[in-house]
Specification:
Blueprint lengths: L1 H4 L3 H13 L7 E3 L10 E6 L2 E6 L4 E2 L9 H6 L3 E5 L2 E3 L12 E6 H5 L11 H18 L5 E6 L16 E4 L2 E2 L3 E3 L2 H8 L10 E5 L7 E2 L11 E2 H12 L18 E3 L5 E2 L9 E2 L6 E2 L12 E4 L5 E4 L28 E3 L9 H9 L6 H5 L13 E2 L9 E3 L8 E8 L4 E8 L6 E4 L8 E8 L4 E8 L1
Parallel strand pairs: 2-10, 7-8, 8-12, 11-15, 13-14
Antiparallel strand pairs: 1-21, 2-3, 3-4, 5-6, 5-7, 9-12, 16-19, 17-18, 19-20, 22-23, 23-26, 24-25, 24-27, 27-28
Helix pairs in contact: 5-7
This protein binds zinc ion (ZN).
């Protein structure tokens, strides 16, 4: 829309005049991530037994001295917060046993005493609180039992100016540099509990606190139409850091190192629903064939998600650093993704989309799906009569009442009480009364289930009992 306005110089003048009068009316949408993706695509290599991180430009880092310091000492100094499903723990609790995954989050702004970003005297605490809360949400939905060391790099400060939409953040998910598809360090540490490297962080994030980027730092409420939601930005970047990221560049090769790709890349499908990246050979002879380059800008790439779902992958007509690294709201038929490439003012997410939770399962995580996608504040008034009969008997069809829902398609996913998907279906809503949500031939075993229905901007859940 904005580009179309820019076609005539007169309109351009009007646009710029309007920009200075009503700056918030423009640049509504900002990209989540930094455009120089090569800089933030890192692999870990070992030299004389010492681990170092190398980005796509060959720039190296050896980690930070404080990562070798005892965790309790770092917590005591308030550099590091330990975040688990139980809460955000300060020094007084750092010796207690933790259940579930744990994130050890170290704020470089605070280590350096920079007085800006996360160390800002006015905003620092609420920024740390919001970011810690996003980590806590993930702790509560990941059933693995390991931990991850996360470094929050010094903040950066880029303003929105006419013609410049700065990125909201950066995220780095370092992986090994083996040929083929690699799990990132965060996954390995969270999954096994064994630290892949004592000296290196498992993931790195940094955030843009440019003066005129108006953030909402709350969690319980909602941003105004003039604010960017910081929790959403944090959630998005953490998901990248957990391995939801691609190394594919505009040529179809890797921007990290030759033939080295991510676990996420393995599941990208081409327009024919075949794997985009195909390997041959093994070990040090393994090669990854360069895909047909036109596919990368086809608007027709997919993620080979769980349960036979194909989730649209961002592959716009012009390749950018965000290409292949995101899901695509513009092609979604059932709701919006936190992992879209950009964020608009007033837009916010407190939970993952069901297909994002499933993508984490695809990457190897043990995810409590019903917890990941259920919304505490979802409209309970609608939740009672949606699914019937309830209780239902095994082998009986379960109907869904879509009255008042104007969206053409509803994704229905049924989870058992362990968070495993028992059934999923896209229900077409033609507005002519109740529809079958769960086919009669699908024999759900007796028990209790959680049924989650999602459409473009609506989500509901309901407990279902099968007798
Ligand atoms: Zn992103």
């Amino acid at each position: 829309m904005k580009n179309r306005i820019l076609k005539t110089s007169k309109s351009t003048l009007l646009l710029f005049t309007a920009y200075f009068l009503f700056p918030e009316a423009y640049a509504q949408e900002l990209p989540f991530d930094h455009p120089d993706k090569k800089k933030f695509s890192a692999t870990v290599v070992y030299e004389n037994g010492e681990a170092k991180m190398v980005n796509g430009y060959g720039e190296m880092s050896f980690g930070e001295a404080y990562f070798s310091r005892p965790l309790a000492e770092r917590v005591q100094n308030r550099y590091t917060y330990i975040v688990s499903a139980r809460g955000i723990e300060g020094p007084e609790k750092s010796n207690e046993e933790n259940a579930g995954v744990r994130f050890n989050i170290t704020y470089k702004d605070v280590v350096l005493g920079s007085g800006t970003g996360f160390d800002d005297p006015t905003y620092g605490q609420q920024r740390r609180d919001a970011l810690n809360a996003a980590f806590q949400y993930l702790s509560s939905i990941i059933n693995n039992t390991g931990e991850a060391d996360v470094q929050i790099d010094p903040s950066f400060f880029q303003n929105i100016t006419p013609g410049n939409t700065p990125p909201l953040a950066t995220s780095t998910a370092p992986s090994n540099a083996s040929r083929g598809f690699n799990d990132c360090l965060a996954f390995r540490h969270l999954n096994t509990g064994t630290d892949p490297s004592n000296s290196l962080p498992d993931g790195i994030l940094s955030f843009n606190f440019g003066n005129n980027i108006n953030y909402y730092y709350g969690i319980d409420g909602a941003p105004t139409n003039n604010q960017y939601d910081f929790f959403t930005v944090a959630l998005h970047e953490i998901i990248h850091m957990l391995g939801f990221t691609s190394y594919v560049n505009a040529s179809g090769t890797s921007q990290a190192a030759a033939n080295v790709f991510t676990a996420f890349d393995e599941f990208i499908l081409d327009p024919g629903y075949n794997p985009l990246l195909v390997t041959s050979g093994s070990g040090s002879n393994l090669t990854v064939a360069v895909p047909q380059v036109s596919y990368l800008t086809s608007n027709d790439l997919w993620f080979d998600n769980m349960n036979g779902l194909s989730t649209p992958v961002h592959a716009p007509g012009t390749f950018s650093a965000s290409s292949l690294d995101h899901f695509d709201n513009s092609r979604s038929t059932n709701g919006k993704f936190v992992m879209n490439n950009s964020l608009s003012k007033g837009e916010y997410y407190r939970n993952l989309h069901a297909e994002e939770a499933l993508a984490l399962v695809r990457l190897g995580y043990d995810i409590n799906i019903s917890m990941a996608t259920s919304v505490e504040d979802m409209p309970q008034s609608n939740a009672d009569a949606r699914i019937y009969p309830n209780p239902a008997t095994s082998g009986e069809g379960v109907k869904i009442n879509l009255q008042g829902v104007n969206k053409p398609e509803i994704l229905v996913v049924v989870y058992d009480m362990l968070g495993r998907v028992s059934y999923s279906k896209v229900v077409m809503n033609n507005g002519s009364g109740p529809l079958t949500a769960i086919d009669p031939h699908n024999n759900l075993a007796p028990g209790m289930y959680i049924v989650i229905g999602s459409s473009k901007d609506e989500l509901f859940n309901q407990k279902l009992v099968i007798e």
